[in-house]
Amino acid sequence: MRRVFLMMAACCVLASPALAGGGAVDLYGVYGAVVDGEYEPGIGVRLSLGSTHWMVDFGATAFMEVEDTPIFDENPNKDDSMKYRAFELGMRYLFYDLHKVRPYVGAGLSYAQTNATDVRMGSGLGFYVVAGLRVGRVPGINFMAELIYRHSEVETTYNLIETTDVTVGGIGLQVGASFVF
Rounded to whole angstroms, what are the CA distances from 127 to 57, 60, 79, 108? Predict the structure, then answer.
């Protein structure tokens, strides 16, 4: 966990020349894949800093608990409940400067933090890609909607013996408000 935050801080320092233009704070609801095709709602926040086209994004998303999901394929009778949180650091490119409707694309690193009731789950580093649309005037309150794909692998241990990597994340829809300054 400490390495991830140090890496994020280093990226902030390296990206500081691009941060001198403005930014946005996004508050959104999300409905997305968590594990093994299980979809859950969640909430998130993202801080974006940058120029008129390039933005550096720092985000956090927390999903509701996934109930009774088979985490191990070898043991289908044992279901478990798990929680999933994603922390992101990435870049985004916004098209059409000074327009009311601005589509964008982006990508970056995704840090997955998971825990379950009966299974020991770790954390893992992965990636995300995003494509979205922001509607509104700059500065001001904008509407935002986006499709995001997250992918991370976390090490999971059951009965202190069986260890496997579990893929968390998947495609999700995020909709909310963007406070652009």
Answer: 13, 14, 27, 6
